[in-house]
Amino acid sequence: MAEEDLKPIAIKMRNLMAKYYKGAKLGKYTFKKIAWITSGGPVEPLISMGIIPVYPENHGAMIGARKMGAELSDTAEALGYSRDLCSYFRADVGHVVDSKSPIPGVPVLAKPGLPRPHMLMLCNNICGTVTKWYEVQARYFNVPLIFLDTPYNFDGPLDHLIDYVQEQFEEIIPQIEKATRRKWDMDKFVKTAEIAQAGIQKWSEVLHMCEHKPSPISCFDAFFFLAPIVTLRGEQIVVDFYSELIETLQDLVDRNQGIIENEKYRLVWDNLPIWYRVRKLSKTFAKYGACLVADTYTNAWADNEITADDPMRSLARGYSTIFLNRNIESKIENMCKLIKQYDANGFVMHSNRSCKPYSFGQYDIKDEVQRRMGVPGLIIEADMTDQRSYADEQIDNRIQAFMETME
């Protein structure tokens, strides 16, 4: 099986991310500025100015994978925050208060968890919750908050909306200059944008490998390998790492090695991973010969196009039109495209208690995708980080019933 062949590159990625977090945690000793940034935020200006970006949402995924979500959410709820709020937010608040985290501390120099930020940057293209989330943390740390507002795309990316976002990009530059006490370098920014685009292209190539039958990886593996393009986009190390991953996957394709034995069904996943059940879900579907060959989540970092001739404009367009900032028809078309592209037999949708924008309209989307594509769909209800919202027996039974309809 391909799983054994992936272990060396998986270890390399763990080491890469460990080095990144250690470097961020020791940033104050190397005179580096730290910025907490939302997953849909424009990281390229920060990278070009020598700022280390840190992603609380990526940390939330790690918290979920280590099954720490319920404990840290409890801490936030004890402070008065509702359980109905995003579990990434609750886990972030809990980790700041309790100093508990899957990211270890550095003896004497730094405590566990994320490094203290010098500034926060948020972009509301993924949801509205991040606005209040970052306001809470900006007050807690008493640091500047840089806000990029991206209007929702009801009717596609209209020029006046792109103009509005581009103007904000230009207003962000003086704020970053003030925070870093450095002069903006357009040439360095363009170079960073070019490297970011190269990384996006490599990540897209990784995902396209799953078009092969049998697929060398599943979306559960892609969830793991996603980290560099999210956290280090704009750094050459991302391009180099994904180039090596592509070589590994190409070898598996050449040898006709699939990630699961006897691939029989090919499915598409929608929404964020259920981080604390990734391995279990992978094994459950594999038991039925089903491989989750594509997903809407990891593809969100594969379709952003940055052009060197007008990077500000292309960034404004790209960050305005990400998957979660589009209308329902766009989401239906995207799911249909993935089903066709990866020759899928069906799809699975995670109705995510924490992520309302991602889960909104899923039942209508499911019905319409089934009608257009003629393949069955399954909705499972859970939460990405808080394991209290996961019912093992109920979900196992729903998966079993769904797979039986495909036989």
Q: How would you sum up this structure, described in words?
A:
- The chain has 407 residues and is α/β, with parallel strands linked by helices.
- The protein has two domains: 184 residues, 3-Layer(aba) Sandwich (Rossmann fold); 219 residues, 3-Layer(aba) Sandwich (Rossmann fold).
- Helix content is 54%, strand content 10%.
- A four-stranded parallel sheet has the order 2-1-3-4. It has a four-stranded parallel sheet with strand order 6-5-7-8, with helices on both faces.
- Strand 3, helix 6 and strand 4 form a beta-alpha-beta unit.
- Helix 1 runs antiparallel to helix 11, helix 4 packs across helix 5 and helix 15 crosses helix 17.
- The radius of gyration is 21 Å and the shape is globular.
Write the SSE topology.
Blueprint: H1 2-25, E1 34-37, H2 44-48, E2 52-54, H3 56-65, H4 69-78, H5 87-98, E3 119-123, H6 129-141, E4 145-148, H7 159-180, H8 186-208, H9 219-225, H10 227-231, H11 236-254, E5 265-270, H12 278-287, E6 290-295, H13 296-299, H14 311-320, H15 328-341, E7 346-352, H16 356-359, H17 362-373, E8 377-382, H18 392-406
Parallel strand pairs: 1-2, 1-3, 3-4, 5-6, 5-7, 7-8
Helix count from the secondary structure assignment? 18
Total individual domains:
2
Strand line-up across the major sheet: 2-1-3-4
Radius of gyration, whole Å: 21 Å
Q: Quick one: overall form?
A: globular
Indicate the proportion of strand residues. Answer: 5-15%
- Report, as a whole number of angstroms, the end-to-end distance: 24 Å
Query: Which CATH-level-2 architecture of the largest domain?
Result: 3-Layer(aba) Sandwich
- Write down the CATH class of the largest domain: Alpha Beta
* Overall strand count: 8
Helix content: 40-55%
Q: Which structural category fits the helices and strands?
A: alpha/beta
Mean pLDDT: 94
Which residue ranges are poorly predicted, with pLDDT under 50 across at least 5 consecutive positions?
none
Element-level helix/strand string: HEHEHHHEHEHHHHHEHEHHHEHHEH
CATH T-level topology of the largest domain = Rossmann fold
Largest sheet geometry? 4 strands, parallel
